[in-house]
Amino acid sequence: MEVDGEARPFLLFSKPKPKRNNKREAEPRVETEPELPSPSLSSAVEPDNCHSDLALTAVAEKGDSEHAGDVDASAAAAVPSTFAELGLSQWLVDTCHSLGMRRPTAVQRQCIPRALEGRDVLGIAETGSGKTAAFALPILHRLGEDPFGVAALALAPTRELAAQLGEQFRALGAPLGLRCMVAIGGFDSLGQAKGLSRRPHVVVATPGRIATLIANDPDLAKVFSRTKFLVLDEADRVLDVNFEEDLRVIFGCLPKNRQTFLFSATISDNLRSLLELSGNKSYFFEAYEGFKTVDTLKQLYIHVPPDAKELYLLYLLSKMKEDNIRSVIVFVSTCRTCQYLDFLLEELGRPAVSLHSHKPQSRRLAALHNFRSNKVPVLLATDVASRGLDIQTVDLVINYDIPRDPRDYIHRVGRTARATRGGLSISFVVAQRDIRLLHEIEDVVGKQLGAYECEMSDVNKDVTKAFKAKRLANMRMADEGHEDKVQARKEQKKRTLARKRKHDE
Which CATH architecture has domain 297-487? Predict the structure, then answer.
């Protein structure tokens, strides 16, 4: 559901800016430096530019009488209702119509005009609200005027989201002959380095891969020396401490005179830190306050015995046709569980694909392509698929394992009920710990989940086949060495953490 906001100037260091008369007045001097809520973010943003590079303007919801007098003239004007009224080039307006984008969404109506004015933008809006077009269209508009060099670098937290962003840029920029390169792990780095040296118009990447390419060939830093736009999609994840060192490398290659666009479905402490460091150059849009799931999503839970999760999963998948469910994403907490369920469904003759970080990248993208193109109706995934993926046919999300963080729940269930469509989410509740996590989710989203009703006789209908498939799936896991892969990954993480601690000391 679209929620419009009214803009008001954000208060620099939480202190109001003095009103100016016609006569020039001196700026008040700030006596002390503000304390950063998140030290990791302060090191991710270059110190020389933290005040000007991401200065933001806050958005108040309608009816905020306390700040009614602060609403600027641009917000008081009529809100554009068509893409043409946003100030975009005609070829972009035509492209939007050809792609079925008839009217701009709330985040697009508010953010695109500010981006075209040259302002930095931080947009917080619910999943499926059109955030990608809110930053892609202004970039393409500017690129149409000056189509030379790397115009934009867009960073995403996962490989799959980066690949999707690349597809969306290509679709919107097709009339321009857009050259868009996706640089992600799992593919030949030498080929990607050569691709960067040819200076594509838009580079979409994960932070780790770009940092690695620059570290291996410092001359590649020059490729980004005139970049006009920096985009952080799912910004709360990109600004996470795990990407801190990579962002240092990347920001060191970018010009300070650029526009920065940050978009996310949830706001984090890191993003709040940027707000506290902000001035009045840029714009902050928030379509709702706090964490939220869309009203068109029906959210349920099932109490499941500890040894019967597979049975309940099979039962729900068997009802897809009856319930008019076109496709379903099943979220799990570990790569091992994801691969195990893949083998289980294969043994039972149920078509499914899996997506997790232990698979080669080419197979991950192939699995996602088969699911997106409706060749396979079931996607088994860890949280690598919980952010930003836009697949219109997903009618059901199953939380086979309940996530520990309510924000991850919001992103998971956001894969369905997108763009005002309806959807269903069902979460498995097994242990007392799951009940506690479920209550935390209910407190955060402000809704009480309903109980999913089913007959045990229906669930146990194929119990013999299911237990045979479980045994065969576990045997395949052992034969193909997946337990060894899990252990090797744990050891690698330990070594990485040890190196990081040693470096910090």
Answer: 3-Layer(aba) Sandwich (3.40)
